[in-house]
Amino acid sequence: MKRPPLRSLLLYGALALVLAASAWTHLQRRQDDVPELAEARLAPRAALPKREEGELPESVNSQAGPADALAPIFNLFAAADWDAPVAPPPPPPVMQAAAPPQAPALPFEYLGRTEVVGEAGAMLIHLRRGSEMFSVRAGDSIDAQYRLDQVGEDALHISYLPLSSKQTLIITGSR
C-alpha cells in the first residue's frame, strides 16, 4: 500500500494543532470571564442563591457573558404568550341595494321608412340588428323582446318587453 505524502501529513498535523489551540483558548476564556459560572456548575442546586425568575446575576448584568451563564437561571419552558394581540376584524362592508335592472342598449340601426299605400298614416319602419333586417309597424314586436310603440318624426319609441322599460331611438336624416 502507498504511504500518504509528506505534504498531507503536515497539513493534517497543522489542522490538529489549530483545533487544539482553538479549544484551549475557548476553555481559558470561559473560565476567566465568568468565575461565578465555574462555581455554579460544581455547586449543588440547593447551594445556589435564590433568585426570582427572570433576575440575572450581578456579573451578567454588569458585563456581557456567555449564553451558558443564563442557563441555570431562567426557566426555558415557562408559559409565554407568543401571539400578538389580534385586532378585531374590520366591519363587513355595507351592502348597498343592487341597482334595478336596466334594459340593454338598443341594438337596432334605423334604415328608413316606407309609407303604406291605402292606409292613412301607416308607416313601415326598416331596422337592422347586425345582419338581420326587420320591417315593423307601430305595435309590432321584434323577436319577442322589443316592441315598436310609437313612430315620431325624429324618434322611434321602443319598449324592452322583459323589463317593461321604454327606450328611444333617435332618427337622423329621416326625410
From TrEMBL:
Q: Which domain of life is it from?
A: Bacteria
Q: Where is this region: Disordered?
A: 45-64
Q: Can you say what this protein is called?
A: Secretion system X translation initiation factor
Organism, scientific name: Pseudoduganella violacea
